Amino acid sequence: MDVMNPPESQHLPSKTLYRWQRTTIEDHLRALRPHWCDMPLEITTEVLGGNASFVNYVRHHRFLDPCTGQPVEVVEKSIRKVALIGSQEARFHRADGILTGSTHFNYPSCLGVIETPCESLIFTEFVRGKPPRMHRIGRQLALGITEIEALSHDYLQAQPLRKAPLLWSMDFFRPWFLLRPRFNFSRCLPTLVQLGLEDDRFAGLAERFKAFVPLTRRMAAEARRSPHCISHMDYLQKNLFMDKGQLHLIDWSEVKVGRVGFDGGAYLGSLFRRKDMKVFLAAQTEFIETYRTALPERFDIDQALGNLRYVFLLTALFHCLRPETVAEYRERDRMPLLLEKYTYLLGLLDRK
User: Fold this and answer.
1) Could you report the per-residue pLDDT of 230-239, keeping only the tens digit for each?
2) How many CB atoms within 10 Å of residue 121?
């Protein structure tokens, strides 16, 4: 028996449970799997790294299924609440069927979510595998992302009106998301002004980068009118694993109700930040060519690619202009590469 998916003949509790006080991990697991009743659970726990906003801790639990004796591995993530409001990650896991039918990505099974006044506790299957080289999986990511966009768009379209406030609160264009530093690259322009005073190669660039402010505002207005979907928004090596040729995607801490194309921009923006230009351009070409072909015809590909460029710019501009990046490139004596990236980004102004 798979502890993540017990036989249909057994009664499954709701995917979401509510508790008003703290209790042990054993009690939580028995609440999520009541067929274990009062059987003993001998649990070994390891603390994992968790650096997302509002994450209290991430723990990896190992134990034997008391019914079958088979090993079970579960990840417990605790996310603190603000004003009793649960995280978007907990809301994502509480929604059944969003990604039903996926073939290009595997997702960890979710045992359930336990809500307390102070935190959301998310229990998912532990995933093993080898972290991929991000610039070499552009094709696989394009196929997986178009699948997420199509499946989740259909799911959102089918939701009843009573779910509208919940989905509205998770929308990318809500102020609590847009005010985050990484979506506000203009805050970093004073750093570029100072850099220009210290290094003639960068003189005057800050004034040219200001043109991205009205451009991204126009792109945001266009994106608002495009089809909604669920966007993972965090395509980093730590969140992807290859196992027997299958790509596993984990960690929905940045999940939002985004727009078709957003995830592609998040992936390419992350790649632009970490790779040299030759590697980035090759991976970008592979990704976009596959994405063009794989996106279902019911979506406007030009609109989706416009959304992709919008999120790419938000991500790439912030990470390339922030003071920490400039300091890192200076320390590693890689300022010519940083200038090359600035030149590439400024060249996008002429294409719009």
Assistant:
1) 999 999 999 9
2) 20
